[in-house]
Structure formats: C-alpha cells, structure tokens
Request: fold
Amino acid sequence: MPRMLTEYFGENTFNDVTMQERLPEDVYLALKKTIENGGELTPKMAETVAHAMKDWAIERGATHFTHWFQPMTGVTAEKHDSFISPTGDGRVIMEFSGKELVKGEPDASSFPSGGLRATFEARGYTTWDCTSPAFLREDSSGVTLCIPTAFCAYTGEALDKKTPLLRSMEAIDRQATRILHLFGKKDVHHVNVCVGAEQEYFLIDREKYLRRDDLIFTGRTLFGAMPPKGQEMDDHYFGAIKERVSSFMHELNEELWRLGILAKTQHNEAAPAQHELAPVFSTVNIETDHNQLIMECMKKIAARHGLTCLLHEKPFAGVNGSGKHNNWSLVADTGENLMKPGKEPHNNMQFLLFTAAVIKAVDEHAELLRMASSCPGNDLRLGGAEAPPAIVSIFTGEQLEDIFAQMIATGKATSSRQKEKMRLGVGTLPYISKDTTDRNRTSTFAFTGNKFELRMVGSSMSIADANSVLNTIVADSLMEMADELEKAEDFDLAVSELIRRTINDHKRVIFNGNGYAPEWPEEALRRGLPNKPSYVESVESLTYPKTREVFTRQNVLSETELEARAEINYEIYAKTMNIEARTMVEMALRKFIPATVEYVGRLADTVSKLENVFGGDRIDGSSRLPEKELLNECRSFLREALFAEKELEKCIEEGLKLSNMKERALFFRKTVFPAMEALRTPIDKLEMRVDAKLWPVPTYGELIFEV
Ligand code: ADP
Ligand code: MG
Reply:
C-alpha cells in the first residue's frame, strides 16, 4: 500500500512535532521561545537538542552531519563530518555535541569575501539558525543531517546571504510592530515576512545536454538558430504534461514533501520545455532555504529521469526565460495579513499606511531592488518583452489607484470600487466575482490582492538578496512613519495626511499600464525613474549614500559589508562573462568552424566535379551552379566567424588586464558582450546552411521539442 502524503509529509525534517516528541518539555519550550522571540539557548540546552537531533538522524540512517550555509556565490555550501568517535578498543560510537550543533568552523578562505578577509585570516564561523528546521538529505550516497547555518568572518562580518536576511527580518519586525501598536494593536508582539517563491525552470534531455559545452559550462546556449516553431502557438502554456516530465514532477513533489516543503502547484510554462513549481508561502527565512532545496532537488531528480534541469534565466534565445516570482507580505503574530485591504480599503488606514510605506521604499530604492533581483543571466531576460522590464514600477490595480486619487484630490477617500459579479452568459455556469485587481503580467512589482509580487528575481538566484533589500527599505519607511506618528496629537488625522503625502510624493513609481509597451521607457524617463539597462551597471547602488544610510540605520549591513558585496558582484559578473566568452571561442574553433570547413570542402569537390560537366563561370563572372552560390555564402559566413572569433579573443585578453573588478566587469559588459554577439550571428547563419548530419551539437529544435 502506498503511504499517504499526510503520513510522510515533513518526515525528513526535525520539525516542531519531532522536537516536541523528542525533547524534554523545558528544552522544547525554551527552543520554541528562541525560535519565536530570539535570544540565546544555554549550552546545556543546546547539548540536549544536539543529542535528540543525532538520535533522530541516525535512526533514519544518517552517518554524517553538515553545517549547511549560503555563501555569497548564491549556491549552498557544506562540509561533511561523520558522527563517529573512537572508543579506544577499535570500535566507534556516534556522537554529536551541542558545540558541534551551534558552531562550525569551515576553513572557508576560498569563498568570496570581497576583501572582508585576507586569505591568511582564513577563519570563518557557521552558526546554527534554529529558526529554519534541520533536515535529512537522502540520496544514493547515504543520509546526511543538514543544519541550516549563518556564515560570518572571524571579525563578525556577514559572509553569506542568510545573515543579512535574518537581520532585515528583525528590522522590519521592530518597525511594523511599532506601527501596529500605534493603531492600538498591543497584542501584536511580532510581524513576520511571508514569501511564496514561484520557481520556473526548463527540462531537457540529458544526453543532448551533455553534447553542448555551452550548457555544461554556462547553463545557457551561446549559439543556436531559432527552430521553425517557437512558442508562438502558445500550445505549451498550461498544456498537458508529458509523462516523462510528470513522473519527474511526481518524484520531486514526494521528495519535497518529505522535506516539509509545501510544493503545491505545477504547470507547463510559456516556452516549450519550460515548467513552474509554486509552494505555499512560508516565513521568508524558511522559504529561502526551501527554495535552495527545491533547486537542488530539481537538478538531482532530473538526472535520475535522464533529464537535465536548467535554472538559468535565459537558456535559449528567442523563447521566454525563467524567473522567480517573489510574493511578499507582512503577517502579524496574531495572524493578520497587513497587506489585506479588507472590504472597504478606503477606510482601512492601517492597510493604506503599510502600502504607502512599500510604495515609498520601492520608489526611493528602485535601483537597489533591481540590482538585488539580478544576476548576470538575468540581463538576458529583463526588458526582453517577456519578463518584466528593467524599470521598477508598481502596479496597484484600479481599486487602490482610485483610492489614492481620491486622497490626493480631496485629502480623503470616501469609497472603494467593489468586486463585480460576472455573468458568463450560460445559465448553468455559476456567477463568479471578479477580483479587484487583474493580473498585470508586465509589472515588475505588482499588488495582487493581499501581497506584493516582485517579478524580477532571476530563476537561478537565491531569493535572500531581494528580500533582504525589500525588508530593509520597507523597515526604514515604516521607521520614519512611526517616528512621525508617535509625535502626532491627532493620530487619525496624522495617518491620513501621512498616507496622502507619501503617495503624492511617490506616485511616479505607480504604473498600471503595459510595461512591455515601447512608450513606457520614455514615460519612465519623463517621470525620472531609473532605468539601468544591465545588472552590472546597477551594482553601484549598493554603495549609494542613501543605501549606506538605510542599511546601517537598520543594522542590516555595515558600510564595509556593502562595499564587499559590490566587489563580489563585480567579480562574479566578470568571471561569468569570461567563462561564457571562452566557451564560445572554444566551441567556435573546435566544433563549428571545423564542421563548416568539412562541409565547404565537400561542396568544393562537388562544384569542381559539376564544373567539369557544366563548365565554369559565365563571362560576367556569375556562376552557372547554385551549388557554388551556396559554397560562397558559407565561406563568407565562415570568414565572418573567423574574424569575430579573433576579435573576441582580443577583447577577453584586454578585459583580463584590468585589475579593478568594477572596470573589468563593465568592460565585459560593454565590449566583450557585443563581441560575443558578433560571433554568434555568423555561426547561427551557418547552422541553417550546413548539412544537419555534420552539425556538431543538438539544435534548439532538438533541445526544446524533443523532451
Ligand atoms: P498566482 O501568482 O499564479 O496567482 P497565487 O496567487 O496562488 O498564484 O500564489 C502564488 C504564490 O504566492 C504562492 O507561492 C502562494 O503561496 C504565495 N502567496 C499567497 N498568498 C501570500 C501571502 N499573503 N504572502 C506571501 N505569499 C503568498
Ligand atoms: Mg504569480
């Protein structure tokens, strides 16, 4: 009999139920208190937790444990230790101490630190994050107990993505709670950030994947002509899921459920071979860890099905890329969702104030938000008339737009547009009530009824950075508002005036139109909204004076930590581009050019034979032979490719001479990137002309339609 989902859900996590079962009551309560309210656990209690965790893990077959952390590479890192301890008589026992649970010391000098530590100061510490449950990772190599941890330098600076996220959660908790207390909600002790991250991905055949160096080294295709059919028929979107893919999804879901991850929705996405998975939302810290696990499981399980999962933002030119829609809301510990407008939003001053705080924050730090949602791969997606544009704007929907307009005009809103009932013109179909906001797909940051949806985040990225920024900037808006309101004599009047003023000051960021329309960038420019065309050009927002002020004021990142992060981003960008460019050089020289030369050689043989029969060129120099025209065409693209290849090599060399990482990164963007395009163009043309049997790699058609 197959086991029921409800039975095995969460069995691989050391979750609340397991803790309650396995810990003495006083320890359980103390731990729960720490999880909910912060504060330290005594060493003795940590010892008890470690023992219980170890027993639980080894009963399930674990032999090793690891501190699982998220360095600034964006992927997770781990170092495994076994539980064994020698007894002196040639045997071992299994041990795991409180100290080992709480603190780890990976020699992590090769993780990016952006200058925060010299290699001779190699010490780094991982510390247990008890707010995210420990879990078991099972695969053919055995079972490992994974302990989510934060990672910092010897000097205490954050070297990871989790620490600032946790700090930002505390910052917004403090400020949002202050505001709620002003509204008389004294029973609120904490405000949590809840996030649901929808994950897009591609699945392709593993055999074909292994025949493309570009996919192996860079995660995306660097060459490839468009197949005759792309996504124009929209027949993949929400289409029936192929069995091979659905059996992958089935196994993925089961593994995620065992890890306590609330995998909920799955469907085919717009591009052929593209899919999406959405979990039910959780606290942002847990959601961030879960999203990393989702990506890891996707890759691992795809391989078991003879598939490869591509998480890159733009694996294929010409069809949609992948993103991660980050649904964000604030929820008080009383259960109240602060982003919920209620029946009469025009009278819901608390909701309007929180919304205004978000609008102000996003307007003031648009560039930073764009940066934190981006990575080198996301540049190929943002602004490509598919994903959101690179301009940050907010979609509020008609109802809020109308309320704000009333407030700006008269100082007070007196009505809210209500949900309409919709008839479908068929007596047997039920009436349905229309949502007050439509799904605007083109907005970067959309209010979707009870949450904001940030749509810019790249599919391969950790969601930690975007949420750290969002939490911090909103915390700062709320702080300013709380400071003002605490001094107010007439609270109601002051709130309403503050909302009106905030919206009036920041209304330029609200845009309810079509974000793909060619007029929008011009309109955005008139409104003074920033539009950084590439990720690397937005990295400097990390060190803008206003960023420094907000991040230090909210205790999320120090100036040094901000500078280090900028440095790392430049370095990662330059390295990524360097690998892409060198992969192109190698593929061109070792694959495409030889294949073309071979084909050209064959054509030349044929032409010379045909000329013996039909004679050579006409007097005017034109050929009698169509074969010769084809030969000439191929040779001219070959010449163009050879020239572009040399140019690209020169550009790479020049870029690598720049030792300043910012200069190098910008050079790669402005000079190397166009040189890569110049090499791709003639090779894609050749792909359409050279005999398919000679073409050395699988084509787009084979990759995305033959899964
Ligand atoms: P769609 O965006 O396709 O309309 P949903 O609105 O159902 O889909 O939700 C998308 C994601 O948003 C899911 O992960 C869901 O759990 C999450 N979500 C729903 N409500 C909230 C909320 N209040 N806060 C954060 N995330 C939420
Ligand atoms: Mg969505």
Observations:
- The chain has 22 helices and 19 strands.
